[in-house]
Design goal:
There is one protein chain. This protein has 165 residues and is an alpha+beta fold. The protein is built from four helices and six strands; from the N terminus they run E-E-H-H-E-E-H-E-H-E. It has a domain at 31-70. The strands form two sheets. A three-stranded mixed sheet has the order 2-1-6, with no helix packed on it. A three-stranded antiparallel sheet has the order 3-4-5. Helix 1 crosses helix 2 (48-66). The chain is flat and about 60 Å long. The two termini are 18 Å apart.
């Protein structure tokens, strides 16, 4: 079940200012060790340590490959790759420089196979999170400002200025 909170865009220069959107509530994050324990409990003959070792090596190899400009596809999960974050466009190829036109790199993950966005939309279920006030006041269990900071400002690290994800 995907829980969500409603939030209102507040950015002064945003054309979306004042509009309300849903933002997913992430209740917990599994690190490699916890994922290994979870996997080891799924009728596998491998111990948590063996599973963690394989996952750790996989993560290291994925980092190495994407930093070498390759995509890595984990079937029915995602294709991992590097994206370029542009600062601004150049008027011509001759005017283009990395310093002026590129802000940096980012990790991209695109759903693939059985975990396509269409499949997530078919199978995913949403429910509004309990114990918060979407108008910004606080109630027992938390505030109405998911992710902290300014509402709609992208302080949760993955929403940015795009309220739809």
């Amino acid at each position: 079940m995907i829980r969500y909170k409603k939030y209102q865009m507040t950015g002064e220069n945003s054309p979306l200012k004042g509009l309300w959107y849903a933002r997913p509530v992430i209740e917990e994050t599994y690190d490699t060790e916890r994922l290994a324990k979870h996997m080891a409990n799924h009728n596998t003959p491998y111990s948590t340590g063996v599973v963690k070792g394989v996952l750790t090596d996989m993560i290291s190899c994925i980092k190495e490959l994407i930093l070498d400009g390759k995509n890595v596809k984990l079937d029915d999960l995602a294709i991992f790759s590097v994206g370029i974050v542009s600062r601004k466009g150049a008027a011509s190829a001759a005017d283009f420089t990395l310093a002026d036109n590129v802000k940096g790199l980012k990790l991209r993950a695109r759903a693939t196979g059985e975990l396509s966005n269409a499949q997530i939309n078919l199978e995913g279920q949403m429910k509004e999170a309990a114990f918060y006030n979407p108008d910004g006041g606080t109630t027992e269990g938390g505030g109405g400002n998911p992710g902290g900071g300014e509402s709609g400002g992208g302080s949760d690290g993955d929403q940015g200025e795009n309220p739809l994800g």
